Amino acid sequence: MAEIAVPKLNTNDDSYVLLAWLAPDGQAVPAGAPVAEVETSKAVEELTAAAGGVLRHRAAAGADITPGQVIALVDDLAAGPVEAPAPPPAGGPTITAPALARMAELGISAERVAALGRPIVRRADIDALTGAAPAPTASTASTVDTVDTASIVDTVDTVETVDTADTVDALGGPSAGLSRNQRAVARTVARSAATIPAAYTAMTVDVGAALERAPRLTREARRPVGLAELFVAAIGSAHATHPMCFARLDDDGVTLHPAGAAHVGVTVDLGEGLYVPVVRDADTATIGAIARTLTRHRVAAAGGTFRQADLDGANITLTLHLDAHVSLAVPIVFPGQTCAVAVTAPRPELYLDGDGRPATRTVTQVGLAYDHRVINGREAARFLTALAQTVKEP
Amino acid sequence: MRVADNINAALHSVLAGDERAYLIGEDLLDPYGGAFKVARGLSTRFPDRVLSTPISESAMTGVAAGLALAGDTAIVEYMFADFLTLGFDPLVNFAAKSVTMYGTRLPMRLIVRCPSGGGRGYGPTHSQTLTKHLIGVPGLAVFEMSPFRDAAEVFAEMLALAQPCVFVEDKILYTRRMHAVPHPFTASVRDGVAYVGTGEPPDLVLVAPGGTAGRAVAALHRLLIEDEIAGLLVVPSRLYPVSLDLPPVPHVVVAEDGTAGGTWGAEVAQHVHARHFADLAAPVTLVHAAGAVIPAAPHLEREVLVTAGTIYDAMVRTVRG
Amino acid sequence: MLPALVDAPDQVRADRAAMLLIRHFETALLDLFARGELSGTTHTCLGQEHVPVAVSGLLGPDDHVLSNHRGHGHYLARFDDPEGLLAEIMGRAGAVCHGVGGSQHIHRPGYLSTGVQGESLPVAAGLALHLRRHRPGALACVYIGDGSWGEGAVYEALNLAALWHLPLLVVVEHNGIAQSTPTGQAMAGTVAGRAAAFGLAHTRITGTDPAAIRAGLAPLVARVRAGEPLIAEFHVPRLGPHSKGDDTRPAEQVAALPDWYPALAAAAPELDRAQRDRVARVVADVSARPPAEWTDR
């Protein structure tokens, strides 16, 4: 089998037009026969078959073709026709790279995707196709936070990432070292480590009922409701009974400022930098309102379009570590706050029920890092217990 | 249809439809038909009104201005836009100013066509895009050929202004096909501005003149495929005065072939900031060639000029921060 | 040589009246400048008045005139409108170009001046091209100085004019000095040699009698109308400064330059007085007008 590739016909064009096939698909052609007419910006050239055989078109008349592209195969007659691979279907959807990766991961065929009838197929469309956990936004493949204890960002510094006039020189290259976003993370983490004597308490929490409740809440809110939304709500409802967990300790180490409402910072990291946007008034907000706010934040994280107001004013932080195999995460405490709650991925667990019989349940490890100057282990445990209760039975 | 053929057809229709229209420039006569063959067939069809001049950019521009002054329609073809500097006085000091400097508005139907841009290895004095030097000249408008808009329409728009217009034509564009965009993008034109998008609400707007359109579309395609970010390409035919009405988007990037410093993009950014400030999450990002001469060797030329990769990188950086 | 009263006394009187009008107009401008009543700059044509007076007599209504920075005489010889010109220079109501163009940028149908040296020659070539097609027999007449020959655009345009057989009349007012630089320091060779290099007709004129000048030029200008461009080089004195108070030449050198005025004023004292009075009335009238308004932008 021989290939007919497009030669480089001049120096001005990087593509030509396949004007017409001079021999139809499937026709036997002798060696040296003209088979196609190719138009450059200056002239029309004929391409010939180098060897005789049956012509198999691999490009359509009228198509743009580039030098080096194989536009036809010539089957050797003596060897019998060779079944060439089918040409790619014309007019199929445009499938994004994240969507392709998801298809491969889930073993979904191109035909199934084409049957969606969408001109553009994104990762979220694949998720929807399989009923897998939907990506929270339509425009990005959202992966949730990895195990990263450096989960809090100075909000003021974060804004710099969207507030800089970028003039991009073709000669200019990226500077080496930490990204601007990560430099901000580094500053905050270092300040926390230097100024806050933090302690850590963790508790296993049964989230089975919560996860059963989530799909209904999602339908009602018309926004995704998952562990993030439920824990924001739980933290909010604990504000009244555990005000110290939301308080701010002055730099003098003595004066405490209680918080009038629960403003919960939530970590969002889509792989392009860590952000901690805030769900305001989580103590009074409905689960639907919380879901809407978090959806908006995720879209903003994908686009880097946060406003300053989105990032300001948290008095407690929720760090999410929902990747499948994360079992323990110790967050740092954001300077100016007292507590940071870490929630890890839910996992099945064997346990003994009230009758002493083995059973399974879905649990997650919920941790609390806290400023030991402000609260002690007893208050930490009571706070975690309150969260566990609310998540189980709001 | 190739872009060069589209411009050629537009010139044929202007000269056929207007007895007072001339085409003036160097090496225009058939069978040569101009250095980039855009004038093919015109001198044969309109021998009295296609004037092939000596190598005299100043004179050919001044002659055209004289014709325009007398009420004729004059179209000048520069062999390379770089040589505009040789015709700057008749264009800027005479033709453009004449529209208003005599106290009452004086119609001047004059179009100066400029094969611009690099990518062909012609080196520092045959590869430039001089748009920046033509911005802010009273009485002078700047347009650019785009593969998304019929040149005949743009010529009609320029002539209706009755003032001198520079028409930038990217040399690489000449051999490209008109109206070609890859799936799932489609192109549409509204009020003289071409929009290339997927039909979804865009996350980002990329403003680019016609000459960069091929690279801009390639960059947007990659942005969609790799990053699932929907971009809308906005290609105004009239580059100056700037007037753009963009959809509300948080990010705007401007890409052009001019060199760094005093760019057209800065003018666009100023316009967008003034008009769309409330929608923007960040200042407009400018993408342009390096502040360097344009080398002849292809690998060096690529380092200096704006590529699809340059535009893509800038868009990603803009959106991701 | 004075305009002589021979066969056409009306024409002679008109020539004399025009030359005197220009002289008194330019003198009045310098006076207004000295009194601080004019802003900007102006370039008077003292000593060169007879050139446009002679040339204008050879031009018809379809001909186009392109003037330069030293253009008051060109305008007044073409249009009997000292009011409009002075209003333009002073920025007053009734200005030819509403005060936008000023002394050096004036446009009326068939007439245009620009202040950039050499710029007008290619434009004149374009106008000549237009006239050849639409007004056969009409010509474009462009005034330049000896200093303009330093500009490349002049040569590009002359080349085209010769190649394309354009009806182009180039009037050179060779006054021997460009701003402060004597021609000898600015021009190698001669204007005649330049004309010869392009195969263009050239004639040299030294007199100041418009009728005599016209008699000599008429047959050559007729050939211009048939497509044979001409360079008519007038040797003239520049009696005034380049613009105002910037004459670097010794006073005695300027005083020794020939001037047609004393003899004409002696020969026609009443006409001289009449034109002086007319200019004085124009100055008084225009000075009293409100500022010009620029509305059609």
From TrEMBL, chain A:
TM regions (residue ranges): none
SUPFAM superfamilies: CoA-dependent acyltransferases, Single hybrid motif
GO cellular component terms given for this protein: cytoplasm
2-oxoacid dehydrogenase acyltransferase catalytic domain ranges (all copies): 178-394
Family membership noted in the UniProt record: Belongs to the 2-oxoacid dehydrogenase family.
UniProt cross-references to PANTHER family, sorted A to Z: DIHYDROLIPOAMIDE ACETYLTRANSFERASE COMPONENT OF PYRUVATE DEHYDROGENASE COMPLEX, LIPOAMIDE ACYLTRANSFERASE COMPONENT OF BRANCHED-CHAIN ALPHA-KETO ACID DEHYDROGENASE COMPLEX, MITOCHONDRIAL
Protein name: Dihydrolipoamide acetyltransferase component of pyruvate dehydrogenase complex
Species whose genome carries this gene: Dactylosporangium siamense
UniProtKB/TrEMBL annotation, chain B:
GO terms assigned for molecular function: magnesium ion binding; pyruvate dehydrogenase (acetyl-transferring) activity
CC cofactor: thiamine diphosphate
InterPro entries for the chain: PDHB_mito-type, THDP-binding, Transketo_C/PFOR_II, Transketolase-like_Pyr-bd
SUPFAM superfamilies linked to this entry: Thiamin diphosphate-binding fold (THDP-binding), TK C-terminal domain-like
SMART domains linked: Transket_pyr
Gene Ontology process terms (BP): pyruvate decarboxylation to acetyl-CoA
Top enzyme class: oxidoreductase
EC number from the UniProt entry: 1.2.4.1
Enzymatic reactions: N(6)-[(R)-lipoyl]-L-lysyl-[protein] + pyruvate + H(+) = N(6)-[(R)-S(8)-acetyldihydrolipoyl]-L-lysyl-[protein] + CO2
Keywords: Oxidoreductase, Pyruvate, Thiamine pyrophosphate
Ranges for domain Transketolase-like pyrimidine-binding: 1-176
Tagged with keyword rRNA processing: no
Functional note: The pyruvate dehydrogenase complex catalyzes the overall conversion of pyruvate to acetyl-CoA and CO2.
Protein name: Pyruvate dehydrogenase E1 component subunit beta
Species whose genome carries this gene: Dactylosporangium siamense
Source taxonomy: Bacteria, Bacillati, Actinomycetota, Actinomycetes, Micromonosporales
UniProtKB/TrEMBL annotation, chain C:
Keywords carried by this UniProt record: Oxidoreductase, Thiamine pyrophosphate
Cofactor: thiamine diphosphate
Gene3D superfamilies for this protein: 3.40.50.970
GO MF annotation, one: oxidoreductase activity, acting on the aldehyde or oxo group of donors, disulfide as acceptor
Occurrences of domain Dehydrogenase E1 component (ranges): 19-248
UniProt-listed InterPro entries: DH_E1, PDH_E1_Alpha_Subunit, THDP-binding
An annotated GO BP: pyruvate decarboxylation to acetyl-CoA
Superkingdom as given in the UniProt entry: Bacteria
Protein name (record): Dehydrogenase
Record organism: Dactylosporangium siamense
